[in-house]
Request: fold
Amino acid sequence: MAARIPPPARASKGCVAGGQRAAGRNPRAAGTFQLVVLFCALALTGCERPAPPSPRLFELLPPNSTGITFANNLPEKPDFNILNYLYYYNGGGVAVGDIDGDGLQDLYFTANLGPNKLYRNKGNYQFEDITDKAGVADSVGWKAGVTMADVNGDGRVDIYVSGIEYLTMHGRNVLYINNGNGTFTDRTREYGLEHSGYSTQAVFFDYDGDGDLDMYLLDNSTHTQRAIESQAQRGANTARTGDHLFRNDGNHFTDVTEAAGIRDGVDGYGLGVVASDLNGDGCPDLYVANDFQGDDYLWMNNCDGTFSDALAKAIGHTSRFSMGVDAADFNNDGQPDIISLDMLPEREDILKTSAGAETFDLYNRRLEAGYHPQFAHNALQLNRGKGKFSEIGYLAGVSATDWSWSALFADLDNDGKKDLFITNGIYRRPNDMDYITYVGNEAVQAALAQGVNEKNVSLLQKMPQVALPNYAYRNDGNLTFTNMAEAWGLAQPGFSNGAAYVDLNNTGVMDLVVNNINAPASIYRNDARRVNGNSWLTVVLRGSGSNTAGIGAKVIVKDGGSTQLLEQEPTRGFLSSVEPRLHFGLGQSKKIDSLIVIWPDRRFQILTNVSVNRALVLSQSDASGKYAYPPPPGSPSRAAAATAPVGFFADVSAKLGVNFKHEENTFFDYNREPLMPHLLSTEGPALAVADVNATGFSRPAPNPRYLQTALPRTSTRPSLMRMEMDIPISSS
Reply:
């Protein structure tokens, strides 16, 4: 039997009291008293129990508990692998939707090889595999993204799967129409959506405002990575590799890509797409994330059936190898922001052993070829209004998440601020510099001269394999984020790709579903209500006409001086679509001041004093009026309404005859000092003001001078160039 330990408080009291008595009787005992007190304090410290760990926000549920045993298994075979198909390890997606109308969200997973899987939600995080019964396995060829939407407007959720037709993989795009009895029918050809090529993902949205769902089809390419193509070739649409826009003409889709102004050439390696009203004019726009040298696209909807690429005007620079993308108002200012993911490592060892994206010379060559500035890190574009964005990825602390795929903004802890979930990891790292050196060996190159075969397929296994945890960034509310993956229970290492957020048990929290490579899919149960007790509201939209889910609608919640905006656009992230119910975290609020829903046809409705912690169903048939959106930036109506600001300065350059223009010379600072953090030679010309002819500033100066310093292209030494100009100056 273990010895009984006396209560710490009693032991402490006895030690201190005895020591005090000894010290009182004999001052020389003071030192002994201090030692006794120290001994007792150490004893108490040893007896104290460690503080219990704070409860985690998420719990990873095992497959034998949920019944979801799907895994995206990718064998390393000679006929199809990462050496002959660059996107072999991009992974699969997941789509969310209530296919049987029972109020529970069901799940569909895509497998790159082998059958896809459809799981019916039975409640309490229990699922049933109904793939064979439903007839939606789609086991032919290579599959990529998936989205769920009511394509034909009959009130039932349909499924659209994107496929790749390349080499020995004869994948195809498939539209599964929901029959309403637990089965689906392939009606792709009938609906005009049978596309053969390199499809990544489809997004259904009402771009022309006619009340039904159109489709933007995102394609990638197999064009050589580093080839700098002419502007003409880049802008020419191609049947197999270019993106396509299909207009819904009554359950039959018409390709209107050219007529709508959509251009996508052979360098459009499309990996992510999201629809959002980015300029606040009531018409859904598109952001397309392109891998490699191809520019991302910011397709602004002109509200007349056409689009214009506004990337160069709106965004200063983008991510370099853009992959997953999301658009949401993360700072609660009423304007959707954008994030596109890249592959900048956070770990120093991976960063130092990974091949760089490009040289500075190549970067300049791309700019000269007409490409937009791109940098290899996650790009968080803060919407500043008036058609302008500021990239703040480094400021926000979300720039480096390694080889990243899905980006999802969602309020994971129900505190009223949208957090950011990012999946990452690639099963084999082809850019590892040791591996590049190894395969560059003459013997290895000779072995690969005839392609990959049974004898040399083992070379694939020389690529490093580094399992990484996903990222879960808590929104700190000041344009910055903190990675809480470990604290929230989301830091299991692996190779994750497509993901979705969904309230699987209708409890008012966002669970997470992740598609992994060579591992079971991850089902994370969110325990936020038990952990922090924050309030929430779920908004279910019932659209009228063929747009039964109200795709494109906006819901604005105002409470206690804060404003939250959510858009009904389920396709987002990477290869996936999230649940179509809108979720608001509300912190400690007990009631919402007001809720505004703006439907795609601009009818709207306003509710006040809305109770929380419930699901609220809103119908478009109850809306009325016409919501007045402000005109877009640059429009004549906006210009006419603008009032010239009254300031202290006025531009009088033309009046004074000042027409000087600085011409920057070409100088490559990095060739002289490669470790410089930024260019110093492009900071602009110097300006000095002085009364050089001693006439005084209050009197006319008939012959003032300009001096411009310049560095001639052929010179390595600074020199001066003198320019003279008479400037009439009126005295005051």
About this structure: The chain is about 15% helix and 30% strand. The chain has a mean pLDDT of 86.
